[in-house]
Amino acid sequence: MTGRTTMTLFHRSLRAPLALALLLASGSACAQATRTWVSGVGDDANPCSRTAPCKTFAGAISKTAAGGEISVLDPGAYGTVTITKAITIDGRGQFAGVLASGTNGINVQAGASDIVILRNLSIGGITAAPTGVSFRSGAALHLDQVRIMGFTNCLAYNPVGATTNRITAVNTTIEKCSTGVRLRPADFAGSRVVASFDVVRLANNSTGMRVEANAKVGMRDSMVVGNTTVGIVVLAPDPNPTASVALYRTLLSNNAGDALNSGLKTSGLNARGIIGHNTVTNNFVGLLAGTSSQIRSFGDNNVNGNATDGAPTVVLTTD
Amino acid sequence: MNTLRKPVARIALLFCLLASGPALAQTRTWVSGVGDDANPCSRTAPCKTFAGAISKTAAGGEIDVIDPGGFGAVTITKSITIDGNGQLSSILAAGTSGIIVNAGATDVVIIRNLSINGATTGLDGIRFLAGGALHVEDVTIEGFANGINLAPSGASEATISRSRIVQNTTGINLLPTGVGVITAAIDDVVLDANTTGLKAGSNSIAALHNSSVTGNTGNGVWVLTTGGALARVMVADSMLATNNFNPAGTLAALHSDGPSSELRFGGNLVAQNGLGLLASNSGDLISLGNNYVDGNSPNGTPTATEATQ
């Protein structure tokens, strides 16, 4: 009896430290690593380490520290994910897929100073998936070697705050969406976006890129091809602030459409297209500047071989 | 004991001694995410880290990567190639530097196919302090104070190609020390979402070609001197866009700043920035007359124009 009482007391005295130890242990298992790993044969119950990888990006991101990186161990489909902090997701060396059925692929809704980097990913949408990569908040979004296809919008800027945001896409393919890139600052009054594209393919969408007021775009060495309605459309009706696209060494070809659409279309008083050293060919209409809008050319573009070539409204000289 | 007297056993012992000695540094070593630095870094018994492999790699040799992994920060003091081709070959260097090159005056160091991440707190992604030449190819660098810091103490050459340098305070920093001079050729590089894309100080001679300088919140390219030796940079056939979107008048896509600064530019798109062109403090900003400058607010002007030939 005495012995049993002693044992019970002993157990009780251990209980609090034991519980604490267990909490700490589970805490450390849940502690965030700067680098986490996913694998096609991983398990989200794992700590996402190199030797015990997770199964999905969504499972890994909660275990990844802000400013850290999710890496991919082997080929796999890693699921849709919402990003709310600075992070890099890099599928380098593997096929790293995100398949979105009826939902967005990757939502970026991060803090005001957060930079989000997505590399070497293949993001596909089926069954009326709305947006491949939806950039709603965060300082900057950087896409490198990303392929997005099969959404209503492949890449969309649709802000939730009055902020200035940056998007850069490099070596990226955007195809088979209703709208390849849609930049719509008007989703939140007072927001604006600047976007740069370097070796990007906007191919076989209905609209390749749609740029609205308070959005400015630079694009170089890219292809805007085979879009069935319009290659690039810039929309800024008066009195809206400027919407502007500058194209440099880029190919706009095989964009179909009709007499009201074209390879490059500007519409509205504050819509600007700036073109230097591009080739615009084999489109229904090459250049189409709507009333009062401007297509500003440096005079060295190959605009030829379109059903209707169209013409710039302003000729600039180089500096 | 008797067995050791036999010639065969003696030879075997000799081999064992040789194998454990440093004389057998390999020309090619291997690392793996599941390797062990106690291994000889062979293809079948790979090491775990670049730092573990480098001491077993002969000068002029190469470290290669078998499978994906984070292989740790490393200091290089001899000619060597590190090539992560075919894998995610990564260095995570939170709060420190990824690769430090402090090699001999004629040594050539080649860094290929690596992902170097400072997790927003890193110092330098690659720090070049000494060496004959540094070649960087197909590397991504993010999250450092300087993505690549070229700060040699002697006359050194650097090439950087096909690399993406993102989210650093300064993407590429050229700032030789003492009598050092850096000559750098940079091609097909993306400098994005840094504070400053490329910054060059006295004793820097650089060409930036066919590259993108985008989304940097400060200057895109900033040649900064306060007197002293010349800093001369040519920017050609590149896109400088969407930088310094809050035009304060002191930041620009192309900024030549200081009496020893020479920044030339030809064949570039300079568009959609806050201020496009800026010369300050007697810096020279020289156009080759064939740049596409429009859509900035405002565009700014060069200090001089020189003819193409």
Helical amount of chain B: under 10%
| Spans where pLDDT lies below 50 across 5 or more residues of chain A | 1-29
* Strand content bin of chain B: over 45%
Summarize the helix and strand pattern of chain B as letters.
Answer: HHEHEEEEEEEEEEEEEEEEEEEEEEEEEE
Largest sheet of chain B: 27 strands, parallel
By secondary-structure content and strand pairing, the structural class of chain A works out as: mainly beta
Helix percentage range of chain A: 10-25%
Strand content of chain A: over 45%
Low-confidence stretches of chain B: 11-23
Query: How many structural domains can be distinguished in the coordinates of chain A?
Result: 1
Report on the structure:
The complex is a heterodimer of chains A (319) and B (309). Chain A has 319 residues and is mainly beta. Chain A has a single domain, classed as Pectate Lyase C-like. Chain A has 2 helices and 27 strands. In chain A, β1, α2 and β2 form a beta-alpha-beta unit. Chain A is elongated. The N terminus of chain A is likely disordered. With 309 residues, chain B is mainly beta. Chain B has a domain of 115 residues. Chain B contains 3 helices and 27 strands. Chain B has a 27-stranded parallel beta sheet that branches. The longest helix of chain B is centred in the N-terminal third of the chain and has 14 residues. Chain B is elongated, with a radius of gyration of 23 Å. About 4% of the residues of chain B have low confidence. Chains A and B meet through β1, β2, β8, β10 and β12 of A and β3, β9, β11, β23 and β26 of B.
